[in-house]
Each structure stands twice: as structure tokens, then as C-alpha cells.
TrEMBL record:
DNA-binding among keywords: yes
Organism: Pararhizobium capsulatum DSM 1112
InterPro entries listed in its UniProt record: cNMP-bd_dom, cNMP-bd_dom_sf, Env_Response_Regulators, HTH_CRP, RmlC-like_jellyroll, Tscrpt_reg_HTH_Crp-type_CS, WH-like_DNA-bd_sf, WH_DNA-bd_sf
Pfam name, any one: cNMP_binding
CDD domains found in the cross-reference section: CAP_ED, HTH_CRP
SUPFAM superfamilies to which the protein is assigned, alphabetical: cAMP-binding domain-like, Winged helix' DNA-binding domain
Domain HTH crp-type positions: 156-231
Cyclic nucleotide-binding domain span: 25-142
Protein name: CRP/FNR family transcriptional regulator
Keywords, alphabetical: DNA-binding, Transcription, Transcription regulation
């Protein structure tokens, strides 16, 4: 797999400044391929709560998450909403080769995306086996994570579910210091966390309070979380 020096003059300026370029699908591209792709891409920012696409709408573009958290939801026939997934940098947003979206996509936090038209990316994938492999690897990683989350939802207690959710967020969006601590803003409301975990809002709040009381987490202004020791939080996950 070809890696590109960030100072390579042939590499597009936007790509040079991208923090997740080597981790996402673009890590499979050389300078010329990045240049070709950059002619079609555009970086966009969305505020928390913005609807990025709706269920059953035609797929016209794909995106890489550069920063922030994206929420995937499904609507039940009776109008209830279920959070079915979260995506973080450098996850790929969109279902390759699908005609319509099977989920609704929303900015759970303020997000930055690198968006590319569907036709342009699918042509590049057809011409580049390395890119196809990278996207397949990302898809399989997300599948593995989804299967792991099924265990959380199906077998863990309420306390373990809430701890697992906090550990998921901490390890995906918070830079960890040498002491193993993490600090982050919750990208979901208590209601969304409850939907995601299959719990009630009251149960989520009660379990968060227990974690705070035992010193596993500190809660500041309701949504800001400090984890002094990630190992202690991880131990509460099972």
C-alpha cells in the first residue's frame, strides 16, 4: 500500500492538511490518484442535529468522516426511531453501489465531511483495486464492530451497556493522555443513548449517576464527560 509524504508537492493542499487521510480510504491512493479524486471532492461542515440524508432517498454521493460523530437511525412503522449505529473519523458514510439509503444519517455532533459524488468514486474504485480493498476492509471492520455491539445489546446488563457506550465514545473521539484519561462531550442526548442501548432514559441517567458516584467518570454540565482512568471504565463494560 502506497503512503504519501504529507509534504509531497503533487498532493492536493486539502489532502495535505487532512488528519485522517492515511487512516481512511484515501490511504490507498497515490499522489496522482488523490489529485484526480480531489477534483470531485468538497469538504463540508454541518452543525449538530443537521439531517445529512434520509431513509429511502437516492444515493448521490458518499463521504468520509473527518471530524465529529455521525448518527445512523431507522424509523419503525409506528413512528419510533432506533439509533442503529454511530460513525467516527475516518468512517465511510454511504452504501456503495446501493440505489437508495437504508438509514437516515444525521450529524450527532458538529461534523466535518469530505464528500464525493457517487459516480466519481465508483469509477475510481473500479479502476483501483487498492482502493476497493481499503473500502472492503473498512466495511468489514464496521461489520465486526456491529456484531460486537449485538453482544452488548443482547447479553450485557444495563450498567455494562452504559459503560460500554461511554468507552466506545471515549476511545473513538477523545485523545488519551499518558495517564489513560479521556475527556469528551457526549454526542447523543440521554434519549438517543437510551434508544441506542435499548434502555429507558431513566435507566441511562441512573447508571450514569452510579458511575459518577463511584468516581469512574466526572460529569460536567450534563454533557461533558471526564474519564480519569479508562481501564476502570473498561472494567465496568463486562
Amino acid at each position: 500500500m502506497t503512503r504519501i509524504d504529507i509534504h509531497n508537492s503533487q498532493t492536493p493542499a486539502l489532502c495535505q492538511s487532512c488528519e485522517i487521510r492515511h487512516k481512511g480510504m484515501c490511504g490507498a491512493l497515490d499522489a496522482d490518484e488523490l489529485l484526480a479524486l480531489s477534483r470531485h471532492t468538497r469538504q463540508v461542515r454541518h452543525e449538530a442535529g443537521a439531517q445529512l440524508s434520509s431513509e429511502d432517498t437516492p444515493i448521490t454521493s458518499y463521504a468520509n468522516v473527518m471530524r465529529g460523530v455521525v448518527k445512523l437511525t431507522k424509523m419503525l412503522e409506528d413512528g419510533r426511531q432506533q439509533v442503529v449505529g454511530l460513525q467516527f473519523a475516518p468512517d465511510f458514510v454511504g452504501r456503495m453501489y446501493g440505489s437508495n439509503s437504508d438509514v437516515s444519517v444525521e450529524a450527532a455532533s458538529n461534523v466535518e465531511l469530505c464528500r464525493v459524488p457517487r459516480a466519481a468514486l465508483e469509477q475510481l474504485v473500479a479502476d483501483n483495486p487498492k482502493l476497493e480493498r481499503r473500502l472492503m476492509e473498512q466495511t468489514l471492520r464496521e461489520l465486526d464492530e456491529a456484531r460486537g455491539w449485538m453482544v452488548t445489546l443482547g447479553r450485557k446488563t444495563a450498567a455494562e451497556k452504559v459503560a460500554s457506550f461511554l468507552y466506545l465514545i471515549a476511545t473513538h473521539i477523545s485523545p488519551q493522555d499518558d495517564a489513560g484519561a479521556a475527556e469528551f462531550d457526549l454526542p447523543l442526548s440521554r434519549a438517543d443513548i437510551a434508544d441506542f442501548l435499548g434502555l429507558t432514559i431513566e435507566t441511562v441517567s441512573r447508571q450514569m449517576t452510579k458511575l459518577r458516584t463511584s468516581g469512574v467518570i466526572t460529569i460536567i454540565a450534563n454533557r461533558h464527560i471526564l474519564v480519569p482512568d479508562l481501564a476502570r471504565l473498561k472494567a465496568r463494560c463486562s
